[in-house]
Structures are given as C-alpha cells and as structure tokens.
Write a structure and sequence with these properties.
Number of helices: 6
Distance between the termini: 18 Å
Strand content: 15-25%
Oligomer: single chain
Radius of gyration: 16 Å
Mean pLDDT: 96
Low-confidence stretches: none
Number of strands: 7
Length: about 230
C-alpha cells in the first residue's frame, strides 16, 4: 500500500511555498498526497461578495492546477474566514483536522511552523499539534513544520518561536516542478525582491540546499517522529 501523506495548510499556495518540492519527490516515489486548506485565502481582501466569489473560484482552480503538477491525489477546501482563524474556537479547528486525519490516515503530516507572523498559519499549527496528540493507534508517525516565505521570516525576533530547521529534503530534482506549481498561483506571486517571487522562492531553496551540501532543499522543523 502506498504511504499516505497529508498537508494541512491555512491557504492555497502555502503547500507549494512550504513543501512543494518535497511533495513532488514523494509523489514520484509512489506516495499518495492529500492537500487540505482550512481558510479560503481571499476573504479578507475584497468586501464585494460577487468579486470575492470570483476570486475564490480562481484561487481554488489555481490550487487544483498546482495539485496536478505536484501529483496530489486529492484536494480539500474548507470555508473558514481568511486571516480570522483566531476567531474560530480551537476545538472547532482541531475537530476539522481530526476528521481529515481519520479520512486519510497519513503516516506523515506537513503543516505550518508555529512561529509564523500570519495568524492563520499559527492557528493551523496549533490545531494540527492538538489533533496529533501522541495517543495509541494514531496514524501520524512523522510530523513536519514548514516555512512560508513572506510569513515565517517576517516574524521579528522575540515575537515568536524562531524557525530553526533540523530536517532537510533534497529537492534538486524537483525544484523546477515546485516553481511550475507556484506559477499556477500567478495572482499570488510577487515581483523580485519580494520573498514570494519566483526568484525569492528559488533562492531560498538554493540557500537551504547549500546549507546541507546539495543543489536545492526544503527545510523543516521536525515536531515528532515515531520510528
């Protein structure tokens, strides 16, 4: 049976920015990739309901296109409010995450780092950690937290837990695929020198690779591994 991998992200595009190269590598190795997004990613931007719905449809189409590039088997969209997950009770968030874990039974789960500037990222991290409490029979064996350019590094010193990676994945062979998936989110990509530009994402991967002796890498904080 192919191993099940689950990504629980706050917004569509976080999965590509945080672990897109790793997901593509795992898909090439035969893993079954499942993507889940808790917030819509656009609701805080436009007060007009019709325009907001059009933007939502476009963002979800982009997520499906990126998922195809990454070789994902499924994509789940929740309907929670963008940049307002601090207003959703943690129990409600956790129960949604628990339902996704029960559905996909992942052996590896990727999610946000808890020290990010973005409130939705932090709340998603908290809900995942709560849902992955170490209990007998829990399917998740490896729990990894990714960085998101223009969020993780924007948290000032002393305001949150710093992202100090201790797990790296060589994505030298899949960096081009990560960048292709990022292109699906053209509306979210910025011009250089923004960290969420194509160049910024590529340079970060090259730097993470250089720090561990390979051409390109994605960096993670290992929250738990059960051997």
């Amino acid at each position: 049976m192919s191993p099940s991998i689950l990504v629980i992200a706050a917004h569509p595009d976080d999965e590509v920015l945080g672990c897109g190269g790793t997901l593509l590598k795992l898909a090439h190795e035969g893993a079954e990739i499942h993507l889940a997004f808790l917030a819509d990613g656009i609701g805080s931007r436009n007060p007009d309901p019709a325009q907001r719905q059009a933007e939502l449809d476009h963002r979800r189409a982009a997520a499906r296109a990126a998922a195809d590039i990454l070789g994902a088997a499924s994509v789940h969209f929740d309907d929670l409010p963008d940049n307002r997950l601090d207003g959703v009770p943690l129990l409600d968030l956790t129960q949604r995450v628990e339902a996704l874990i029960a559905r996909h039974r992942p052996v590896t789960l990727f999610t946000h780092h808890g020290g990010d500037l973005n409130i939705d990222h932090r709340r998603t991290h908290q809900a995942v950690m709560t849902a992955c409490r170490p209990q007998s029979g829990h399917p998740v064996r490896t729990l990894l937290c990714f960085e998101v350019p223009s969020s993780t590094e924007w948290q000032p010193p002393g305001s949150g837990t710093p992202f100090t990676p201790n797990w790296f994945v060589d994505i030298g062979a899949t960096l081009d695929g990560k960048l292709a998936a990022l292109t699906a989110y053209a509306a979210e990509v910025r011009e250089w020198p923004h960290p969420r530009s194509r160049e910024g994402v590529a340079y970060l991967a090259r730097w993470r690779g250089a720090s561990v002796g390979c051409q390109a890498a994605e960096a993670f904080v290992l929250a738990r591994q059960l051997g």
